[in-house]
Design a protein that fits this description.
mainly alpha
Length: 86
């Protein structure tokens, strides 16, 4: 069973970091590295869900919650074209 409250708390943190301009300072590569680490580490250690962590903010950052890669075609549901077709 997924840790929904933990996932949505991390989603709130990502939104706040975006609001503060942290991702602009980090740049695309470091933002991707951070988001990948956050999703993979917490999924393994705390049973969080990348789809909930990246809900809404994933499309803005252009990071697909399924493959956790930066893609230009991430839709409003957080999936890139390749992952939508799977």
């Amino acid at each position: 069973m997924s840790n929904h409250s933990g996932s949505y708390m991390l989603n709130d943190v990502l939104y706040k970091l975006d609001e503060l301009g942290v991702f602009k300072v980090l740049g695309e590569d470091k933002t991707l590295e951070f988001v990948q680490w956050l999703c993979e580490y917490t999924e393994e250690e705390y049973d969080t869900n990348p789809g909930e962590i990246l809900d809404g903010i994933g499309a803005k950052l252009k990071i697909c919650y399924s493959c956790l890669e930066r893609k230009e075609d991430v839709n409003e549901y957080g999936l890139c074209k390749e992952c939508r077709e799977d």
